Amino acid sequence: MLKRRPPFWLALIYGAVLLVGVYMIFHAYTVHKYMMELKNTPLNQSQGAQDTDKIMVEFVDYRCSHCRAIHPVVKEVLRRNPDVKVVYRHYPIFKDTSLREAQIALTAGLQGKFSEAHDYLMSRGEEPITEEEVLGVVQRLGLDVEKFQNDRRGPEIGQYLVFNLDAMQAIGIYSTPIFIIDDVIFQPYSADATPEMFEEILEEVYGS
To answer: Is the dihedral of CA 84, 87, 93, 94 positive or negative?
Structure first.
């Protein structure tokens, strides 16, 4: 007896289900790959322990008031947990003003002074740094001005920022501050954030 072929519409459904499954697997792989690569520090953009597996990734913008508000909390987490590293990933939300300050921090990283630049930019006043003020800030931070001018619009910083944007789009995050701790995405409200919130996730993910 000849077997009847399944109806065409049923074959279409099977095909659609297969495609969705393949897409979901590929998307999950892509997200995982980005989340792992976000832990890297191509521009030395980190604070805390260096040789450690306990890593928090923070998406930041120096023009973001919530990022500045939560900065002391992050510093306290590092003080209380000397085996933790924070890797900073810049997301310049406010266009030129955000990009300008990110360039200062990242070029400082290329000169081994990211941490000093990051703390300064997080703790300074509400007003953004103007283009006319940039070199004064660079000198204040003790950076090589000529190297800064060469690096600030160089390919390393450009590739780093493009990667951040691609990663955020793939993961599905669009604001700051957002933290990624292994595979946990955490967006605390800065006014309520405490070191204990971070430590609870760190312990859950990495153990004591």
So the answer is: positive
